[in-house]
Amino acid sequence: MDNNKKGGRVFVISAPSGSGKTTLCKRLLSDALGLVHSVSVTTRRPRPGEKDGADYHFVSQKKFKYLIRNKAFLEYEENFGQLYGTPKRYIDAMLKEGRSVILSIDVKGAMKVRKAFGKKSILIFVLPPSMKVLKKRLEMRKSDGADDIRRRLAFAKKEISYKGRYDYTVINDRLDTAHRKIRDIIAKELTKPGGKNEGYADRCSHK
Fold first, then answer.
1. In what order do the strands lie in the sheet with 100-104?
2. Which of 15, 55, 154, 158 has the most CB within a 10 Å radius?
3. How many structural domains are present in the chain?
4. Quick check: is 33 in a domain?
5. Does 205 map to a domain?
């Protein structure tokens, strides 16, 4: 299928763990942008407050490997001993209908999405204000031990090295400001030829 001939876009939001991408994606989905969310599949255990089928599809290692064998993923990666994958069929179906999809995935997955969809993909990297702030946010989450936080911070530095490959970079210093900037980026992209936003760009604030 030639996705470049369809009206939908694939918006990728990547960020180091603890940078707020999950909260940002939830806000973007509640905006009048017409976006749909592709729920990733993972083998990790749910965190407090996460719901199966809403935040992630939580599966066993055995089920995940079965899905790999059946080529069910657009992309998948292993992070911190757990597997994460993006279901392919749903995204293809949405793009065929002219819908735009938002993905919250890591940098390696983003590169695979760019390779698969080319100009139909828009990559947005969310940066923390500083590594010190990122460490504090991870500590406040209380879901990782000290060793895990150190590994996440080291991994974050590697992820940040990819930011030059993204179309846009947004610093999440203040959540409301970061949300507005990303919302306006998406609205702008949806007004380009082939995009669909039903006039949203004319209604949103560009302050």
1. 35-37, 100-104, 10-14, 121-127, 168-171
2. 15
3. 1
4. yes
5. no
**How far is residue 48 from each of residues 45, 75, 143, measured CA to CA in Å?**
10, 26, 9
Residues of the domain holding 183: 3-195
CB 103 within 8 A of CB 12: yes
pLDDT in tens, 52-94: 998 899 999 999 999 999 999 999 999 888 999 999 999 999 9
Residue 206 banded pLDDT, cuts 50, 70, 90:
very low
Residue 17's domain is classified under what CATH number? 3.40.50.300
Residues 114-155 pLDDT 10s: 999 999 999 999 999 999 999 988 888 767 788 889 988 998
d(CA 204, CA 80): 39
Among 60, 42, 24, residue whose Cα is nearest residue 186: 24
**Residue 207 within a domain:** no
